[in-house]
Amino acid sequence: MPLIPEEPQIHESVPGPRAVPAAGRPAMTPRPVPGPRPAPTRSGSPGPRSGPVPAPRAAAAGAKAATPQIQLIPASAQGALDAADEAVDLLLDTGRAPGEVLVLTTGEAHPWAAHELSFGEASYWAQHDAAEDVFYAAADAGRISPRPVVVLAVNGGSDAAVAGALPAAVARAGALLIVCGDPQRVNALLPASA
């Protein structure tokens, strides 16, 4: 794909989504299980829809909404972004569509989000709405739509910010939530209902 003149080229050394893992790079964190997959469609029925995933419907009275599978990848606050990137790589390598994955951060913005925001909010949110690629955002961003898989990088932020990000990430994850962070901190702040 040709580069747009106003868009600088992103070099391999800049963190962000990778199509394939870097050669010779050792895996520094445990690798997540790919998680539940959507049920296959019946013969003759339309295939998977493209576009944004609709918000979950409210549960019927007395029925409990489905909770996504939650996986914790131990990582320091400084290593949470790398762990999240590795989780995304594994998800894509195991067949997840890029548009099914949302990456949220509790501290500093992911470098890919910062790069995309440099072109303006309208362009950034248009990518979110298109739901064609992995999307990176701050955990407290209010405009984010649910996706089948959410990766939450606990890369900083106050305890209150992390405590608020955890249930919000659970609510946005359709099938799988992968939390990359310090297990003691995450477990202490994880709501009892998650």
Describe the protein:
- The chain is of the alpha/beta class.
- Strands 1-5-4-2-3 form a five-stranded parallel β-sheet, with helices on both faces.
- The protein starts with 68 loop residues before the first strand and ends in a 5-residue tail after the last helix.
- The radius of gyration is 17 Å and the shape is globular.
- The longest helix is centred in the middle third of the chain and has 14 residues, at 80-93.
- It has five helices and five strands; from the N terminus they run βαβααββαβα.
- Residues 1-29 and 39-64 have low confidence and may be disordered.
How would the global form be characterised? Answer: globular
Query: What is the strand content?
Result: 15-25%
- Rounded average pLDDT: 76
The largest sheet has its strands arranged as 1-5-4-2-3
- Topology order in helix (H) and strand (E) letters: EHEHHEEHEH
| Cα distance spanning the termini | 42 Å
Main beta sheet, described? 5 strands, parallel
Helices, by number, come to 5
The parts where pLDDT drops under 50 for at least 5 residues are 1-29, 39-64
Count all strands and give the number. Answer: 5
Helical content stands at 25-40%
Which structural class do you get from the secondary structure elements? Answer: alpha/beta
Rg over C-alpha atoms, rounded to the nearest angstrom: 17 Å
